[in-house]
Amino acid sequence: MSTTAVKRPLPKGGTEARRHRGTGLGTLVVILLITGVVSLAVGARALSPAEVWHGLFAAADSDQRLTEIRLIVQTVRVPRTVLAIVAGVALGVGGALIQGYTRNPIADTGLLGVNAGASFAVVTAIALFGLTNPFQYVWFAFLGAAVAGVVVFGLSSIGRGAGNPLTLALAGQGVAVFLAAMTTAVSLSDQKSLNALRFWNSGSVAGVGFDVIWPVTAFIAAGLILALTTLPSLNLLNLGDDVARGLGVNIALSRTVGILAITLLAGAATAACGPIAFLGLMVAHVARYLTGPDYRWLVPYAGLLGALVLLVSDIVGRLVVRPGELDSGVVVALLGAPFFAGLVWRGKFKSA
Length: 352
Hints:
Elements: H1 15-41, H2 49-57, H3 64-102, H4 114-129, H5 134-156, H6 165-188, H7 191-200, H8 210-237, H9 241-246, H10 251-273, H11 279-291, H12 295-320, H13 328-351
């Protein structure tokens, strides 16, 4: 008998699969960086690479043209590019997490009532206090999103259906509908609130400065850290509560930390740029197609894809109606609606 070792092919999900996923992750990072550079150059006024470089790094001088370029790059395009990346990561990760915790393939971060809570808080703050600066009402938006998330999670944790993903979805829809009705009532009774809601509710990364972006990024970073700690237990939860409990998962604690992470991510992103519909839903499905059901890979992919989609949508919005702009939330919705319809058709086709 030959003593030569026989090399067996690597099992699916082994070293080769991890290498492919790692390569894909690195490729997404490179594409995102290239898209970020494009975002700095594209707009109502197109800039060459040399002008972008000058706008970023050159010292101030007396040339009016070069001064204008520095203003465009540093005060307009850099903040919106950074916000698109940060908010896109948050919404992508939040979308993947909410689908995992609810075991619902069509769940989105809006399912927790986060978007509705933020909208209601914004119009209420404007109506009561006359706020006009985004830095002022972003805190109310985040507070409203957080309170809505806590209320939904609290309602889903009581009664006979406590802890059931279906109960969470129903509680979220109930709270979202109620808050949407209250938002409409407040905005219709106050013209200033209605105007602000009409602008904010479309979802845009434009017009927000670093005074808003930095605190929002801190909340998103905290949400990402919490999200990363829950990924191993989230994989087990998707095998079923009984299996996860048998493998030592504290289901109540895991779900609590997960919902808190989703609320921080979605609440902060919504507070900064308004509700962006369909983004988390889309990128979570694309990430699952690329990586499979392992949330240790799915969540990072979803975050990078979310940033890429939101950034590309913002660039497209600047180009299609030049010299005007189409809000990035509108572009994402235009992409997301047919994507959602495709998911429904594909599901029916498979079940036929």
